[in-house]
Design a protein that fits this description.
The complex is a heterodimer of chains A (276) and B (67). Chain A has 276 residues and is mainly alpha-helical. Helix content of chain A is 65%, strand content 6%. Chain A contains 7 helices and 2 strands. In chain A, helix 6 runs antiparallel to helix 7. Chain B has 67 residues and is mainly alpha-helical. Classes of the chains: A mainly alpha (276), B mainly alpha (67).
Chain lengths: 276, 67
Amino acid sequence: MNTGITLSATPSTEGFTPPGPGDFNLPPVGPYSEFEFLGQTMYLGVTKPMLQLVLSGVLIVWFFYAASSKRAMVPGKLQFAGEGAYGFVRNSMGRDIIGSRDFMRFVPYLFALFFFIVVNNFFGSIPFIEFPSFSRSGMVYSLAVMSWVIYNWVGIKKHGFAGYIKLQTVPAGITGPMLLLLVPLEAMSNLLVRPVTLALRLFANMLAGHLLLILFALGGEYLLVHGALLVKPVGLLAWALFIGVAFLELLIQFLQAYVFVLLNAMYISGALADEH
Amino acid sequence: MTGSANMIGYGLAAIGPGVGIGLIFAAYINGVARQPEAQGRLQSIAILGFALAEALAIIGIALAFVL
């Protein structure tokens, strides 16, 4: 895009191509075929993020099956960890947000969603797998569409279609001409924009975090190898910042999974809320 | 975009979420200082507010790299 601003003092970076979102387009393992779609090469094959999703499912099922197999009254360490993990989702996200009356219906979905997202996010920090599977937007939007279908379905089943639309678009206690301004705004915000922001938050966090790590690693290497003598310590600084940002990424990965499931629970509880 | 206009745009766009997150955690610290028993209940609200405000900054940096 030509912005019309002439920026003099462009740095001379011949030889360093900065990383971009194209670096996240991993080629498939094994045999594959290509096709062009909207100017991008798409691969028909089994790619590494696909294998990661399957691996995360296998790991979660294996862990919780092993944690719940003994069912002792006095739990051992594995059972305690499993119960603690399950209780975290069930209590702090299910019961406290949706309410103690009808939260048990949604606990399986929230629990599976939380651990699926957490394990896939942490794949971005585990050696040899270093790729957060949700830095590919398709997977995130499917989760967001599923959440959207669920909270709308639940709301429509409880209130009826007209009642549910009224609940979501008309805020309480407002009458008169203000409604003309507020109803389209609320309708767009509650019914259309929510899945997009839900998905975009998770996807952009994973993409930006991993891109930052790639930038620090590649930039530090370029500065160390090709920089002038006084510039070389900046490369080492870039690598030290890489380690710092990697720890920040661990926190962000857990936090984004927590916020995704928390917002899901809040949307479900908002759809189930009684009439004002 | 040519040049580094997208990074200038990201720098400007990060002012808003920075102020917002500061306000959220200022309210959290105030609340816990007045009533330390409320820390558990306020913490989840603070984390939720932080993630919502941070989302805008993250969209900014993601689009700064993409465009």
